[in-house]
Predict the structure.
Amino acid sequence: MNQRVKQVVAEVLGLEADAVGDDLSRDSADSWDSLNHLRIVTALEQEFAITLSMEEIQGAQSVRQLIGLVARLSGNT
Amino acid sequence: MDDKGAKSFAQKCRDAASIDELRQVILERDPLGLTAKDVVLAGRASERLGVKADIRFAFAGTHSMNPLPAYLKVHGLAHGYAIADFVAPYGQYMQQLLVDDSAMAGFDPGLLFVSCALRQLAPRLYHEFSSLPPAEVDSERERVLEHLCQVAEFASNRTSATVLIANFNRPPYPALGIADAKREMGETEFYLSLNLELLRRFKSSDRVHVVDMDRLIGGIRAESADRMFFVAKNVWLESACNTIAQELLRYIVAATGRTKKCLVVDLDNTLWGGVIGEDGATGINVGPGSPVGEAFQSFQYAIRSLRERGIILAICSKNNPADAEDAFRVRVDMPLKLQDFAASAISWGDKVSGLSGIAAALNLGADSFVFVDDNPAERAIARGAMPQTTVPELPRDPAEFARFLQRQVYFEKLRISSDDIVRLRDYDARGQREQLHTSSGTLLHYLTRLCTEIEVRPAGKGDVARVHELFNKTNQFNLTTRRYTVADVQRFLVQPQFSLGVVTASDAFGPMGTIGVYLVESVDGVARLDSLLLSCRALGRGIETATMNCVKGEVVRRLGCKRITAEFMPTAKNAPANGYLAVQGFDLVTRREDGSELYQASGPGLQAQSCEYVKVIHHLDGARGVE
């Protein structure tokens, strides 16, 4: 699952898959703007058949946080 | 999108060696189905190929415009437009419009798209509609309209752009629910009246156009668009961006004058179901009674409305001419009649020859044509042999033909003028003129019997749209091929150093409409012929000479100049204008390195040349006088 989340982030941000580590965040990636953030969220929602609330969208600002969120919402911890 | 398709699209984008190849890659996809990833990939590929931009497009508004600019670039690319964009910084669109030396003014856009969200422009209207008294709703609407009029005015003054203003899309659920319809000035009524008033305010403007966002994105779920606004401050769902980009592309096609002039259609299984040579006129399937027949009928109606837009129709089909004519004669229930077509190539010869024949008969370039044929093999051959002709991939199912045609961007015009309709009749009469040509013996005899008459007069406000169109669409008989915007044309009307003349023509077969334009700039007693162009329909019958006689007359008598300079700037297409200035009594001064030639005329060179078979009515300063 971790790899699938990283794959989504890499595709949206236009990065190589191995450039996306757990610590990559909105602060450290230039192309991670609000539009791409929403694109990541929409892609994750489709990929894992989940729905994120606004609060969760704003709360998950790094790959690690996204992975944690997806794990929780998909009951896949 | 499945991963396999995504990979191949990505790979194709990476492999594209030229911009034309990349265009083919994009065209193979349904443009309205491009994903965010497709747009990024195609965008990167075009950056790698480094195309020189020919369209400068600016975005401004209350909200974030991303990712629409990237979509517009890719949609433009698919249609051969290299678009450079400028996006006004978030929240600063008015500053950009108000300041003379703003970054936007420096960008010098050819088109400017302005979109304001009502939730930002008038938050109370958006959020508290049901608590506002009707009088306040009225005054808020006036305020919004005034704001947009100001935006349009500033944009028109600060830039030379064609200005596109987005109207307001209705919220999907009125605050009062279905009872909204019964309220005095309810929410639905408010949006309809706001958009109606917006439409009316700019109806007569040649510079400002209203983009109907309400129609485009009304059906998109607003709940998800809300999230887009809260998180990314954009009001459009990303999935709407293809549709919006397509709509903006329509304005680009029209504003740059690259509207296609002629639709050429095949007959069997394109205009009707079945094969006329086998099924006979009563056997072909078109008209009410069967789903397939209705689909073809609907397609014919769609084609007919293109004709009413001023698009010329032609037939290119492999058939016996008699059979094809039979179909039109017997099936009076078909919306299209044989006389709706200005030219036809119906024979067993190949379609490429047919298309070339139609181009020659109508005196149009291959790039003016859109060819519609149900047979993929014929389409591929036509595409290969005539790359400039547009050959869209017609869907397989006739049920989709009509909507497919309506969705194409090729036939857009900013305004349908009465000239469009006159021109259409002129093309229809062309066939008759060709007949006269063969039965009249000598050319002079023919020209005399044609009774050509031209009227030359200073351009007025009512000519702006047609003059703009001629400047941008005339390729062949065009001395300098300088493309001017609507703003430029309006400037030529008011600045005293410019004389902008229009030429209208008629002959024994009827009026031909406005067929020529010239622009003279006079400074210190010397006139400079900046532009002179004539529609190719009008060539080869003395109008070239008669027009220049009028230019000379104006230069000498009205402007009081003793000398006029003129240029010929060769292009890939304007060979018909080569040598024209020398024939008209101009002397070659110099030939520059880029191939352009500078001429001048003075003394005897300014005398009118004999042109007795064209009657000329020349108005100087609008004063009537027959010369």
Q: What stands out?
A: Residues 134-158 of chain B form the longest helix (25 residues).
